Each structure stands twice: as C-alpha cells, then as structure tokens.
Amino acid sequence: MIRISQLKLPIQHDGEDIKNAAAKALKLPASRIREFNIVKKSIDARKGDVKYIYTVDILLTDSNQENEKAIMNKCRSNNITLAQSSRYSFTPSGTNPLKLRPIVVGTGPAGLFAAWLLASHGFQPLVVERGLEVQKRVEAVEHFWATNELNPQCNVQFGEGGAGTFSDGKLNTMVKDVNNRYRLVMETFVRFGAPPEILYLNKPHIGTDKLRTVVEQMRKEILRLGGEVRFGTVLSDLVVEAGRLVAVELNHKERIPCEVLVPAIGHSARDTFEMFLKRGLSLTPKAFAIGLRIEHRQSTISQSQFGQSYPLLPAADYKLTHHTQSGRGVYSFCMCPGGFVVNASSEPGHLAVNGMSNFRRDEENANSAIVVTVQPADFGSNDVLGGVAFQRKWERAAYAAGKGLIPVQLFGDLLRNKESTTLGKVVPNLKGNYTLTNLEGCLPDGVMQALKEGILAFDRKLKGFADEEALLSGVESRTSSPVRINRQEDFVSSIRGIYPCGEGAGYAGGITSAAIDGIKVFEAIANYYKPNY
Question: Is the pTM of this model over 0.70?
C-alpha cells in the first residue's frame, strides 16, 4: 500500500473529498483508488486557516509493488511512501518452570495489560484489586460525590480500571513505539469497546463513560482465559526469604505462596508503599508536580484556538508551559475539554481533585490542572516517603480550606488574596460538593507564586486564559507517583520475583504509557518463565 501524509482538507469534507485529494497527490484518477484507510487525523489551526490534516494508506485497483514504486517515482514527494507494517509481534522464550501462577496487584492499565497478556499465554494469573468492580465502583464514587462519605478502599483512585477510569481517558504518549506496543494498546482498547477512531486521531481519547466498558470487557477476557480476579482484596504483606519473594498476604489474613508478583498499584497506594519499604524493597523519592485545577467556558478556549470556525470543530484542547523567573516549571496537565472537575480524594481528612470528560466532551466548561514541578528537596524531609507526606500536607490544607468540600476561588480573587464570595460567568462543573473560599494557603508559597505567574503568561499564548472570572479548585496533588520502586534491566526489583509496573512504580505517566509498561513486564516474565502448573 502507498502512504500519503500531509493531505490538507477544509473543515467540512467527507470521504469522497479525502479520496479525491489522495488521487490528486498521486496524480491519478480517483477511479484507480480501490480503498483508503485513515492512519492519522489532526487539526492544524495555525495561521488562522483551520484545516484537517490526514495521513492515509491507499490501495489501488491494480496494486502491486511494481506499480506502487512507479507511482512514487513519478510523484517524487517526501509525503508519499510505502506503508510499513505496524503489528505487534512477540514470541515468549522463557524456559524456567513457574510452578505457581503469577499474582498481579491492581487493575489499572498496567495491571490489566500485564494480566491479559499473561492469561493469553497460559499463565492463568490471579489479579487482586482493593477496590470494587467498575459498576459497583461507580455507585460508590457517585455516593461520595453526593454525600461526601468516602470509602477509602473504593474511590476515584482505587477500583477496577485504576485512576484512569475517572479521567478524560487521553491516550497520547511520548513513548517511541519501535516495537508497536502502542499500536497493540490501541487495537486492544478498540477490541474491547473503545471507539475505532482512537486508532488514527492525533490526540485520541476514550472518555470515562467508554473506558468503563473497556476495562470490564478486559476483565471478562482474563477470566475466560483461565485467570482469576478478586475485588475488595488488598496486598497487605510480603513474605521474603533470602532476598526472594515466597508468599504474599492478602487482606491481613490470607497467605498465598507466590514466585512472581506484579505490583501495578497506582500512584496513590500509600499504605502499600509503606509496607514495601518495611519489607526491604528498594524505593527512591522522585519529582512530581502539584497545583490547582482551572475552569474556563469551553467556548472561550475553542474560539481562542480555532477562531470563528470553532462551532464546526470538536472541543479544543491546549498544552501550555512556562519557565518562571524563580526557575520553576509550570505547565498544564490532564486537560479535559468539555469536562468536569472531580473530587478525587482517597483518604479521610484530605482533599485532592482531578479532571474527567465523557467521550463526547460536550460539557459547558474546559478544565485542566495547572501544576508546578516539585523536587525531593522541596519535600522538607529526607525520608523515602517524603513526597507522600508532602502530598498529604497540602491535601489536608485543601480539606481545611473547603471544610471538607472542594475549595473554589476566582482567579482574580486569588491574585488579590481575597476570599471569593460570588461567581462570575464561569459556573463550576464539579463532581462533588464545593464551597467558595481562599486557596492561598493550599500550596507552598513558591508553588503558588509560580502558578500565578504561569497563568498570566499563558494568557499571552491563549487569549482569555487569565480571565479573572476563571475558576480555580484544589489541590491537584496526584499527577504522578512520589516514589519509584527500583527495578533492574530484567524488570525485577531488589527482591527477586517482584516486577514493579506502571505509574505507581514510577515508570509511566498516563493510561497509555502505563499499559505499555504492563506489556514490557509481561514480556520480561514470559522471556524467563514458562507456566508449569
């Protein structure tokens, strides 16, 4: 097949327009094109002239290698190449008998993909998850949002699908895909219920409503393949002999022999980090980011990005960065077009927020986290878990500021260090109860000053961003894990038999990269072991 990139089409177009544009690029009549497949679709809003940009694979009525090369020689364009295969391929090479089924802890993307691939290759994993299956989890979370009664074991952070289940479901990643693992992730999501367009959109997302179906179907496939999934089950202890894992304890009472453990615990399993440290697992503190959520009317963002054409286009997003005078980095994180700000707390007396969107992204407001990078030196402690204590400190401050509710403030009032008492044109679109207050004491002084400077700087890039009636809520403290569970080149930790995995282990930064890390850990296990039970 022939691949054509940089095909530009106007906002309003259809399949025939794509076909005709491809034929023109190939200098052929459209009748010579049997079919085309969209490989990539994006929007270019630069220079004020909004266009859709496509990469497509073309199958001709008389396709063969000789004809395709002749056409490419005739066109002589860097945008016309031969399509390359993008299929994931892996053949296990493990020879060491594994006498006990592996145990995967956590059903976020890292744990799900590790478990699904282990099950697909005959390993029959046991998967344990402290939260509940997705439908019961949704009920528990919605109960919390309505009543403020928190279930510490099942909430926005814990339960089937991990923290990503209550998110925008963004699937972009900076990971280079030389082994086609990213492609496997996307095709697997589609297989289990995600919209097919995620395979070609430049910035694909599933949406929290669609993602719930995907994780449920993946779990059912793990069960069909011989795996077992237990919900309401906490990994409470490890049994280690001579530097090797020999058993795990579940729910503080059940001991199960174990040779291979995949902890894909997520970034908020603070009690598990403490237990790992107690049992001698090697952990190191790592940088992350902390800040506030900001809400604008989606029409403000879309018009600023797309001009007057915005009603004809999907809800616009943004990605903004700023380097402050003090040397701190400020950036937008987890931007949710047409979405909600959600109460994402997981511990009593602490308050954390996140953002989520449904697939349609059709809510009134856009929101994102505006966060500032913090280093271990900022934590005020040399303890390995100093980052956890730092997060907890500012989550307690947010809880106090809102008296248990999400604390919200207008940006103009934050600049003047004044408690907000009335709303402007932006009405909060929140999941969870909120109160107007003053956020000034909810972050370290240096972080808050950097955040204010960043928002003002972003206004020069995105008109209306620093509107004084934009809403801020806090705190966004769970951007990534505050620790890394150290592992070697073979993906094994300092305790043999333990394969740390995903965002909670410090090796990923979102749904897709976590899923890819789960694939890598599966490969490491399958290249060393073969099931023998």
Answer: yes
